[in-house]
Amino acid sequence: MANQVQALYDFTGEPGTTEMTITCGEMLTLINTDIGEGWWEGRNSKGQTGLFPAAYVRKLSPEESTPAKMAPPAPRYDQADDWSDQQYNAGDNNYHKSTSHDDGWDDDWDEDTYSEIGPGVPHTKAMNQQAPLAPLPGMPIADYNNQIDDSTSNFSSVGTVRKSKFAPSSKVSGESYLLGTLNVEVPDSDKVYIVQEGDGYMWAAVSQPYNVTVASPKKESKFKGIKSFIAYQLTPSFNNIQVSRRYKHFDWLHERLQEKFTLIPIPPLPDKQIAGRYDEQLIERRRVQLQEFVDWMSKHPVLAKCEVWQHFLTCTDEKRWKAGKRQAERDNLLGLNYCISLVVPEKALLQSQVDHITEQCHTFVSSMDSSVKSVTNMCLAQTKRFQAPYKTDCQKVGEAFYNLGNALSLDEGTVISTSKLTSAIKLTGGAYIKIGRMYEEQPKYDWEPLGDKFHLYKGIVGSFPDVLANHKAAVQKKRECERLTAEHKMEVAQLNEVLRRTDVISYALLAEINHFKQERTVDLKATMQKFLRQQITFYKKIVDKLETTLHQYDE
Amino acid sequence: MANQVQALYDFTGEPGTTEMTITCGEMLTLINTDIGEGWWEGRNSKGQTGLFPAAYVRKLSPEESTPAKMAPPAPRYDQADDWSDQQYNAGDNNYHKSTSHDDGWDDDWDEDTYSEIGPGVPHTKAMNQQAPLAPLPGMPIADYNNQIDDSTSNFSSVGTVRKSKFAPSSKVSGESYLLGTLNVEVPDSDKVYIVQEGDGYMWAAVSQPYNVTVASPKKESKFKGIKSFIAYQLTPSFNNIQVSRRYKHFDWLHERLQEKFTLIPIPPLPDKQIAGRYDEQLIERRRVQLQEFVDWMSKHPVLAKCEVWQHFLTCTDEKRWKAGKRQAERDNLLGLNYCISLVVPEKALLQSQVDHITEQCHTFVSSMDSSVKSVTNMCLAQTKRFQAPYKTDCQKVGEAFYNLGNALSLDEGTVISTSKLTSAIKLTGGAYIKIGRMYEEQPKYDWEPLGDKFHLYKGIVGSFPDVLANHKAAVQKKRECERLTAEHKMEVAQLNEVLRRTDVISYALLAEINHFKQERTVDLKATMQKFLRQQITFYKKIVDKLETTLHQYDE
Questions:
Q1: Which of A158, A553, B185, B469 is most buried as measured by Cβ atoms within 10 A of its Cβ?
Q2: How far is B435 from chain A (nearest CA, A)?
Q3: Min Cα separation A373/chain B (Å)
Q4: What are the phi and psi torsion angles at B342 (to 5°)?
């Protein structure tokens, strides 16, 4: 029974993957705890096997042999607030590759991503104390108890929020904005302008452009090294002060942004499914995808200046961080209500024109969605092809030549000297083996960065249908108001206000459509050029290698 | 029962292939007659399925429903003597790709290769008339009967000679030469010299070097086009007169050469297993391998001047052909007896030195045999990789980019012009699809010629163990004679003659070992250089294609 675990929460496995759906209280037999990334493999009572998050189950003691339906205990203990180490110490080079997987990386990435500063998940002290999970292996009891006492705010319910998406609440439906019942004064500094450019409308450009670098992630630790985690070092160009952020902070930020901007696609965070054979590779891929995220944020005229992002980018003080966090979570200019911050051209929009553009956008986005996914998949497939069969094929070629050279060297000398030839043939073999290794190395220069870029596009494009739906809902509300006015159930003055505000929402959509177009036109060009240059360099390297080899045959 | 056939002969399927062993009289159910190259697929009574030569079975008429063990009937009718069309008419451009497989190509290549001018297969007129197979489809009965009457000499037993190897007979054991009982005067013009060069011994060089080109094969026909076959056009440089030879003539020649030269590896004829998806490709590969065969022949000091080869290369007259053929088949200087033509240095060889060289050769040849086979297999594998997965992968890359360009083109124009970018991305897609086709085309420039060359080496190297064994047998005979002399059972004078003649045989072996070494040293160098140049050209073409594509992104 040592291999028996009990599900603490419901978990819905993603269809078509190796994930398995488990139900709270269900008994499972452990098959493999060595999956990594916080996943375990098990078998349920029906004999089905699959992966589930390790944190969603508890190991049973030998005594607990009779499966019993239990009330779900309180969620797993999360590491203590690590915000104190948020400011990265530049001299601190404490990144060490750990051989253990119990290093906080998994849960940092996986279940804990919504913890600590996450919103809306109810948790009480009582609940926390009900049945906390065992502390991490190797943690002294005293430390553990300490943490229980002072880390109340760090508990989160891992069982309910995974894969949660922002669900609209009354606070963010935008009806109060649309109907003019929202009475908020937006300070001038927070106002966002939409301007006409040619036939179209654009967000007013970022007044002070900046960029942010995401530096090589460092493994940091706390509790005297017992608990370690990966932190990314962000340096904005406007102040050159580095801040250290964990994935869970990114994730908290991402939720705030998604709540607030329902007409602006928020760039995606790194793909949880990134494959990497080495931790270093995995961490680097995540860094690249985080860099894509911050690049997109910094270049977006609205997102680049929004308060929560600025707070995330610059805050180095724990007290100020908490204050900013509370303020962000109290923000009531969410969803369509955010539009009260917008200053748009006076001109009323033609509904027919807006409809035409949104329909075209809809068509474009559906087509783009499938082609962006296909580029992403293709990059993944090519990476695998380069790293396995292409490499292996080259090595087989190399081995065949090398063995030929070896065979020939058994009959060298005497009458006709063949040593020059046999050595050239062996070198040819070596060259192909080397080319095989070049194939293995290559994806990190072309297919992987291309895939990372298209991960970004997949996220942006995938958010557009929601953006269009949010806009459509506003247009429908407007039509409803028009009907009410026709039926004399609404004042003309109020309708005019609704019309005006619907126009603001449409202006925002049009500006966002154009922003995406402008960004991708510049960005995709640079992406394709960079990709092609890397490909050219690669094939040139093969040519060079083969030319050097050919010269071995010269007299 | 229309699909029932009966085996006319025993056929032993090669283990590990799709071939199936069938036994004379056995009933089989036909599964597929569309295999090509003279093979059919069937199922035996045990339910086993596999391929067997179509010529080894007869189709049963609907009446013959009861399987009955029959005496094997006479072999299948072979096409009439086509020697009259041996001289290729340069103006005759009658090569047409036939869509039918009943065009005489299959049997020309396959079962009939040993027919017509093949030796030693007993056949009588009575046997021929016993139960001839049905004529080829579409052949008028009158023609068919005519042929039966005038083509007696064209029957051969296909059931007994397939895959036959030269089996030594008393005529070729060489004992008569070794024991000095062979009394033949070799005219000076036929004498072959072995000369000392440095520490080693070599065949005296070809006095008048020449080469022979094998031109694009032509499909020729007879019986007013009912029967057609492939003929290869050979032009020796010494007279520039083209002769036309079918595969069966090559095959006859090859048997003569193997009978005559048991100390010289005879280059192999084309691989029967050559894979080609189109007939043209198949025919061209065979031509290339025949070119390798004639090149090796023409460069070999002994083979290049031997009578049967000269006859094969130059005879354009039917009567003279038949006379030459009879003469070649009556040749009694076969096997070791051929050594009577050799003129070697006076110096007696040290047996220990000969033993050392033959042992080294044995070691070298075993190692070479496996590495040559591995290069051959590698070339075949690479050809397949280039033509299928590599091509497909490139095309998938191309399609992903092309579809991306297509998606982007749905949102062109208005505020930001993206047409330049979308067109560049589509062109990038096109470039990768083109590169895919380049991969498909490439093997005929590098992997296939390399494979053809190593097919030659596989044959040569594969013959060396027999060569070494033939030499070893002579040395053992010599030792026996030494023992007999020690026991006073043989005269010292006769022993001295045996010793002298064993030395001649050893000189021949040493000369041949050195010849192979000399040839391969020059030839492999040229082969590898040619191969590498083709590879370089290929990867340069990819670089060019990608560079052109990259320029599409320029403003």
A1: A158
A2: 12
A3: 9
A4: -90, 145
Query: CA–CA separation, B25 vs B69, rounded Å?
Result: 5
Which pair of tokens denotes residue B87? 């001289």
Pairing status of strand A4-7 against strand A27-36: antiparallel
**Is the ipTM value over 0.95, yes or no?**
no
Q: How far is the C-alpha of A361 from the C-alpha of A338, rounded, in Å?
A: 22
B299 annotated binding-site participant: no
Same domain, B394 and B452: yes
Chain B, window 2-41: residues with a beta carbon less than 8 angstroms from a chain A beta carbon: none
Tell whether B197 is within 8 A of chain A (Cβ): yes
Domain residue limits at A30: 4-59
Backbone angles phi, psi at B43, to 5 degrees: -125, 135
Exposure class string for A356-392: b at 16+ Cβ within 10 A, else e = ebbeebeebbebbbebbbbbbebbbbbbebbbeebbe
**Total count of domains within chain A:** 3
B246 annotated as ligand-binding: yes
Banded model confidence at residue B279, pLDDT cuts 50, 70, 90: confident
Between the two ends of chain A, the Cα-to-Cα distance in Å is: 73
Any domain includes A70: no
Instruction: Say whether B43 counts as a known binding-site residue.
Output: no
Tokens 């009575």 appear where? Answer: B126
Report CA-CA distances (Å) from B424 to A179, A534, B420, B542: 47, 17, 6, 17
For residue A393, give Cα distances in angstroms to A433, B25, B387, B453.
9, 47, 14, 20
Confidence of residue A93 (pLDDT cuts 50, 70, 90): very low
Closest chain B residue by Cα to residue A537? B543
* Domain identity same for B85 and B33: no
Last-in-domain residue among B318, B343, B368: B343
- Give the gap in angstroms from C-alpha B204 to the nearest C-alpha of chain A: 15
Cα B330 to Cα B120: distance, rounded to the nearest angstrom: 11
**How many CA atoms, within 13 angstroms, populate the side-chain half-sphere of residue B233?**
17
Percent of chain A with pLDDT over 70: 74
pTM here?
0.71
**Residue among B232, B191, B193, B238 nearest B212 (CA):** B238
Contacts of A381 in chain B (CB under 8 A): 393, 396
Chain A residues whose CB is inside 8 A of the B460 CB are none
